[in-house]
Amino acid sequence: MDTTLLVIQVLNGLQLGLLLFLVASGLTLVFGILDFVNLAHGSLYMLGAFVCASLTYALGNFLLAVVVALPVVGVIGYLTERVVARSLYARDHLDQVLATFGLILVFDTSAHVIWGPEGIAVPLPDWLNGQVALGSGLEVPTFRLLIIAAGLAAAGGLFWLVNYTRLGMLIRAGASNRTMVSALGIDIQMLFSLVFALGAMLAGLAGMLIAPITEANIGMGNSIIITAFVVIIVGGIGSIKGAFIAALLIGLIDTLGRAFLDDLFGLFMSSAAAENSAPAVSAMLIYLIMALVLALRPQGLFPPKVR
Amino acid sequence: MPTMSKRGWITLVVLILLAVLPPLFYLGGQAFYLDLATRLVILAIAAVSLNLILGYGGLVSFGHAAFVGLGAYAVGIPAHHWLYGGWDAIATLSGWLHIPLAVGVTALFALLTGLVCLRTKGVYFIMITMAFAQMVYYLIVSIEEYGGDDGLVIDSRTELAFFDLDKPLQMYALCFLSLLVALGLVRMIVNSRFGMVLQGAKGNPERMATLGFNTYAYRLTAYVISGAMCGYAGALLGNFTTFISPEMMDWHRSGELMFMVILGGAATTIGPVLGATVFIVLEEVLSSLPHPFGIYWQLPFGLLLILVVMFIRGGLAGLFSGRKER
Amino acid sequence: MKRVMSAALAAAMLGLPAHADVKIGFVTTLTTPAAVIGNDMKNAVDLAMEHLGGMAGDTKLEVIYGDDGFAPETGKQATDKLVKQDNVDFVAGYIWSHVLLASRKSVLDADKILISANAGPSQMAGQLCDKNFFSTSWQNDQTPMAMGEVLNKAGVKSLYIMAPNYAAGKDMTAGVERTFKGEIKGKDLTKWGADAQLDFSAELAKAKASGAEGIFVFYPGAAGGAFIKQYDQAGLKDTLPLYSVFTVDALSLPKLQAADFKAVLGSKTTQEWDPTLDNEANKKFVADFKAKYGTYPSYYAAQSYDAIMLIASAVKAVGGDMSDKDKLRAAIKAADFSSVRGKFKFGTNNMPIEDFFLREVVTDADGTWTTKVIDTVYTDHVDPYAAECKMN
Fold first, then answer.
1. Is residue B323 part of a domain?
2. Hey, are the CB atoms on A291 and B303 less than 8 Å from each other?
3. Among B residues 216-245, those touching chain A with beta carbons less than 8 Å apart
4. Quick check: helix, strand or coil at residue C196?
5. Where is the Leucine-binding protein domain (chain C) (predicted)?
6. Most confident of the following: A158-167, C228-237, C375-384
7. Domain contains B262
8. Does C31 touch chain B (CB under 8 A)?
């Protein structure tokens, strides 16, 4: 195997993993603290992409658009919490799954009504459009490096927020013991709204970062949300650290599977069969891992310490 | 016969309407409505099977569409080989192979996955059932011979002793009778000692365990019955559409089945049937709205879904009964 | 399902009750991101109806739309509804090969006429050909075959291939492999459908590492724009030149222009039609389409326009009498209409025998990005499956 190719594929896997982490971290916070299953979390990823795409054309600059779009998505998340999610906290997970399934239909169709079916391409500034040479024959698109950097920065910021701030202390406390936090006289409703908005912004950021690559698309959230659930289950619900490690793991497995599995399969089956089955099998792999984790260690690899 | 409850009457009326109306439409030259009703009744059987574990057993399966798909492929694959050769052992159209194969394969799949899934609880159960469904989805996608992503057109239907499935009325008759049997079966199970334990384990598993019941075994049995019943519905669906594709087991489809059960009323006999009816009729009516409203039908549909969950607890069947039965 | 009614235009204009004598069902994608193609086709059909005044001779025409939701199962349901409930005489449209394959039986069993305005799966040109099935587009293999010839001519020695993993994707790769004489260094088939794979980083890295002299891709609709951007961001323009079919078109170009994505200018594709083709029907079609909708029509639109014109010519020839199917089929086969391709005739398997051109992306006089013909690759080309067709 070619080492240059391997390095590039690992970087690709890292990029996918970090995007997954941005989506999964909000999901795991909302799930861990609010005990709320939000299938519509992927819709916030999609809305982030669309809002940012529109703003890029309006403001003429992608990075500026990201800065403006983030609070917009935060507000959408906040409103979602207020209008729909809040009244469902006391319900069982089944009701939450169904109601947020309905939310997906509403968000997706609304995007169709507002932005049309065709999706929006997002232009990048010239300096982000090129490639960076990391060594001989090793060239990587600049923007993909930026995604990795932004993903790492967001992850770092989140760790800092959760581990070293008062809000983070409350979030951690909330994840492990809800009643204690409310007993401390904290406005638990406000905390919940904030967590929801924070999760929305993280998912929205992921959508904004991917939009220049895949364009903003209706339904783009639906393919990532299921994978994000796999991430948080594998990582342990409520655990940021677990989500981080699991996201990188899943991102690498998915990318490396797509990249190398057909060569591997080609060793013992016809190349046509290998080409066809390899992508499907690498997609199956991540569910297999989740099923294994659930069967052997149902609380996930890195469960929050107190539960 | 003791006096019938209000919900009993509703059940009777719904079933009579389903028995009479679609054939009348067909004889009146509206073949399309018979098709719609056939789809409805088949999905109702799947919803009834889901209701057994979700409604009565409290096991929220988010992967039930996998059973529908497996059932359909269990019919489609032998028919495919009968048409195009290969695998002589199963290359037949005989219902004596098709139906047992569909039921057997789904029962086995339910048993194997149930052994693992039922060790988990709550949201983990939801997610692991979905994970297994996704695995089956991608497995089918990867098998080029059976059409992969494109699916497979099966030109020939299962040959059964008393029903000619190429005749729409007979197809409908079989589906409707199957629904009656499924309803009767679930009712019988629920009212048996087995059903009592299953429902008891939903409310208070520790207590049932202390009483000496192996709740795991009870749940596993219910899960297998439910999966096999759903696989049978899949066999019907494959025969009805003469087209099978991985799309049948997409997680959206599992969500729709859950919605039917909840909309109609979980843990009620007629609930899943009501839910499937409202679901199919709404989808048809909303998507038939004049352009451009028709293509946005999922917007009102999604809103309705949210409103039903938020405000109609106990589903439609709950509306028809004075007391709360959830 | 998801039916959308379109009023019979003539009836509406004359204030008559909307009673149509001949009904045409048109199945295309109106939801999901792929609706960008479906809307273009619908626009062309509406324009064709306008040009016809809603009439074929003395017979009124009515078009009823069906949405396939980018999925075979949904497409089949939409087709069933058109056939059984709306009792249409023709079912036309179909962007996607797998949708057409799933739906064909519903139409043919009811002895209705099926006309593909885009999809051209190999099976339906060969063994599954049918006297009631006609195409106003091409067989899937033909366009990439033309591209294969272009590659040979350009002296390209080795190729990497990428396409979506569905019926047409497989036909397209088979097509280019059929004529391309060099070496195939590698091939990737990616997930397609409503949750299609849109990030091609892993595949592009493989393509680059393969050392191929060029990359052949087929990514229709929204995926095309995404692919081209990533291809450019990966800096492959000089080392791995792009040769595409059905990827750079009138649907992706406006988006790419809005994003000022100049890399696409000068790229070449093969096609059976182009807005610059010099004939009366095409000039009128392109001018009126641009005036009405503000964009260039795509080949999807051109083929849909031709499908309606073909139907109208046949309905007119039989005087609106749909009962004598042999006469109707003969009238369709005669293809007595002014195609936007200039000339149009059917082969033995009811697929068109037509020319294929090499097109280049250019800027037009108004500054809009579009394509123009720079060469003719095939003249009167017959698809490779025609011999397998035993018409019953």
1. no
2. no
3. none
4. coil
5. 22-364
6. C375-384
7. yes
8. yes
Tell me how close the Cα of B187 comes to any Cα of chain C, in angstroms: 33
CATH-assigned architecture of domain C142-271? 3-Layer(aba) Sandwich (3.40)
Domain segments of chain A: what residues? 3-296
User: In the complex, which subunits touch C with 3 or more CB pairs below 8 angstroms?
Assistant: A, B
For residue B144, pLDDT over 70 is answered with yes
Task: Please indicate, yes or no, if residue B19 is contained in any of the structural domains.
Answer: no
| Contact between chains at B139 and A294 (C-beta distance less than 8 A) | no
C190 in Cβ contact with C215 (< 8 Å)? no
Residue C260: which of B138, A267, A57, A194 has the closest Cα? A57
**CATH hierarchy code of domain C4-138+277-354:** 3.40.50.2300
Q: Under a CB-based contact definition with an 8 Å cutoff, are residues B83 and A53 in contact?
A: no
User: pLDDT for A223-238, tens place per residue?
Assistant: 899 999 999 999 998 8
Give the distance from residue C330's alpha carbon to the nearest chain B alpha carbon, in angstroms: 28
**Which residue in B151, B284, B291 is closest to C72 by CB distance?**
B151
Question: Does residue B25 lie in a domain region?
Answer: no
Within 8 A of C165 by CB-CB distance, chain B residues are: 148-149
pLDDT tens track for C296-352: 999 999 999 999 999 999 999 999 999 999 999 999 999 999 999 999 999 999 999
Backbone angles phi, psi at B292, to 5 degrees: -95, 10
pLDDT tens, B227-278?
Answer: 999 999 999 999 999 999 998 999 999 999 999 999 999 999 999 999 999 9
Answer yes or no: is pLDDT of C168 > 60.
yes
Q: pLDDT above 90 covers what percent of chain B?
A: 63
Residue C17 pLDDT > 90? no
Q: Tell me the pTM.
A: 0.90
| C65 membership: H or E segment, kind and range | strand C59-67
Size of interface A-C (CB pairs under 8 A): 120
- CATH number, position B235: 1.10.3470
pLDDT of residue B213 exceeding 80: yes
Cβ contact C72–B291 (<8 Å): no
**Dist. CA B235–CA B101, nearest whole Å:** 9
Domain membership of residue B263 as a residue range: 31-316
The total domain count for chain B is 1
Higher pLDDT, B174 or C232: B174
DSSP state at residue C86: S
- The amino acid sitting at B243 is F
Cα A143 to Cα A11, A19, B31: the distances in Å are 12, 13, 56
C202-226 core/surface letters (b: 16 or more CB in 10 A; e: else): bbbbbbbbbebbbbbbbbbbbbbbb
Q: Please tell me which residue of chain B has the smallest CA distance to A116.
A: B296
Q: Does C177 touch chain B (CB under 8 A)?
A: no
The residues of B whose Cβ lies within 8 A of any Cβ of C are: 30-33, 35, 148-151, 153, 155, 241-243, 245, 247-248, 283-284, 287-288, 290-292, 294-295, 297-298
Interface contact B298-A95, CB threshold 8 A:
no
Q: Do B132 and A287 touch (CB under 8 A)?
A: yes
CB pairs under 8 A between B and C: 78
What is the CATH class of A3-296?
mainly alpha
Contacts of B188 (CB under 8 A, 6+ apart): none
Q: Specify the 3-state DSSP secondary structure of B268.
A: coil
β-pairing verdict for C352-363 and C268-271: antiparallel
* Nearest beta carbon to residue A291 from set B128, B301, B304: B128
Mean pLDDT computed over C258-269: 87
Say if CB C68 and CB C193 are below 8 A apart: no
Q: What is the dihedral of CA A279, A285, A288, A293, to 10 degrees?
A: -150
Q: Where in chain C is the domain with CATH 3.40.50.2300?
A: 4-138+277-354, 142-271
